[in-house]
User: Which sequence fits this backbone?
């Protein structure tokens, strides 16, 4: 078994899936995070999506026992093509679409995918790069697309943005996202 990268461990800890959660992973890559999430699920489910056929094949092969148990569904599609709803949590690790362009269609798809009050985590490893610029860009995009309670997450293992899908009657925080530190 291969070692789990620290950024993936950190991401799953931050997302903190509960046993009954419906979880969406965008950009599942080789399926390392999918395996860690599925270990926490009992009655919940993980939908892992990626646009790469190779990534989907690797995720399915790596996590065949979770697919067989009905805890994991692996699907080849882009985030913009998603047609799901009612998810409790959604996350991505090192998916650049959220800060390299407007990502309007991707954010609209994620907004539809989450139930009101559902949480979105857009996470990045601690590698080189302008972490503040990335999180500022992502936070602004989320606040502008129906997400509330936007906060920046930062630790030695990674950085990212957490947000909640708006709920009826909730007032958005369009100003500066509140910082949060994780370990």
Assistant:
């Amino acid at each position: 078994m291969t070692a789990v990268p620290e950024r993936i461990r950190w991401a799953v800890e931050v997302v903190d899936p509960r046993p009954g959660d419906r979880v969406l992973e965008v950009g599942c890559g080789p399926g390392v995070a999918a395996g860690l999430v599925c270990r926490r699920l009992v009655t919940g489910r993980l939908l892992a999506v990626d646009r790469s056929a190779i990534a989907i094949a690797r995720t399915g092969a790596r996590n065949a026992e979770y697919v067989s148990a009905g805890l994991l569904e692996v699907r080849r599609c882009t985030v913009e093509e998603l047609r799901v709803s009612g998810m409790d949590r959604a996350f991505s690790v090192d998916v650049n679409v959220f800060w390299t362009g407007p990502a309007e269609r991707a954010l609209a798809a994620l907004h539809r995918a989450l139930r009101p009050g559902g949480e979105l985590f857009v996470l990045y490893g601690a590698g080189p790069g302008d972490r503040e610029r990335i999180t500022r860009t992502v936070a602004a995009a989320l606040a502008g697309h129906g997400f509330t309670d936007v906060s920046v997450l930062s630790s030695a293992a990674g950085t990212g943005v957490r947000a909640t899908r708006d709920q009826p009657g909730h007032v958005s925080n369009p100003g500066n996202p509140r910082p949060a530190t994780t370990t």
